[in-house]
Each structure stands twice: as structure tokens, then as C-alpha cells.
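Q: How would the C-alpha cells look for this protein?
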Amino acid sequence: FPLGTTPVVYTYMDPSANTATCTFNVTVTASADTTPPVVICPGDITVTAAAGATSAIVTWSEPTATDDSGTVNLDSQTYHSGDTLPLGTTGIRYIYSDLAGNRGSCNFFITVEEDTSSVGGITCPDTVIGQEGVSNYFTIGDGSGSNVTGDTYNPPTKILFTGLGGRSATFFFGSYAISGDVGIFTVTVTAAADSGLTGTCTFTMDIR
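A: Here is the predicted structure in C-alpha cell form.
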């Protein structure tokens, strides 16, 4: 029977042509659609950004959604494939709905990690013995067997020094120099976040 009300009539007749009828209605109503769309979601994704980068362009396969009504709408999404995402983990969400307003969602996470595979941790000298009133030179290793150079990493802005006790650190033709008052102190050297280097090291400076 179609949706709506349909009358049903039975007619009976005896041999003398006398008739009797039976009439009733059959009503068919649509059941409420309470089934949400079925959404197939991509899995979590991890991508690698270039060394020194703070973000990366990320692409992914779009989710797919189906519904028993045959019609699905994409209501919203927090990001689009091809967007630039920052370092760290970002949640991605898609929301779909059918004609009855039932909703289905897709949630996954994208992690952007900085590439540190091509660089090692910076290395410091053991002890630097110097003299008061002059520049006392030393080098910082870049972790790959070479020294940090101005041509490549533009020190001193990419290498950070702490523990100098008011003394100054400068860079000149491939070497660093610390100058200042007499004293024995521990210098901590840290690679800046955008230097393409990694790590922290320490050494003892003895100015006599």
C-alpha cells in the first residue's frame, strides 16, 4: 500500500443476488528517520616539516559519507586538505547531515613534526682557557663533524649563550669569542629554534 489511507472493500453475494459489504481503511505512515549518516574517516596522520620550519602544508583523503535516504550534506569542516598546519597536533573534524537532520561526524588528528634527521646535537669544547681583556676564541660543532659557521647558520643570532655573568660573546670568521673579567664559569650553549640545529651543550670558561 502507498503512504496514506487506502479504503479496502469486500463484497459478498448469495445465490439470490443479495449482497453484503465489509469496508475498512489501511493507513500507511512513514517511520521517523533516526539513523545518522555513516562516515568513513581517514586515520591519524603524521607529516614532517623541514628543519627550522614552524608549519607544513598537509593534504589528506576526504572522508566519505552515505545515508539510507540517499542524500548527505557536508555541514562543516574545521580544516581543508591543503591547508597549512602548525607544528604539533591539530584536530580535524567533518560534520555531515541527512534530510531528517541526523548528523554523523568524522574526527582525526594530524601531527606536524620538525625534521631533525639531517642535523645532530651541537657540541661544545671541553674547557676554554683565556685571558682577561682579549677575545678568547673557540668553535661550536654542528653535530655532523663540522663547525657552526656564519655562512651557514648566521651566528650569533642562531646560537644562544647563557651563564656569561655579564661577559660578551661575539662571532668572527667561523669562531666565537668570549671576553670579560677574570673568572671560572660554566657556559650553556643552546641552538635557537629556527637555526636548523638541535640540542644544548655546556663547557667551562676560565679567564685568567
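The helical segments are 150-153.

The CA atoms of residues 176 and 206 lie 15 Å apart.

Upvote if useful.
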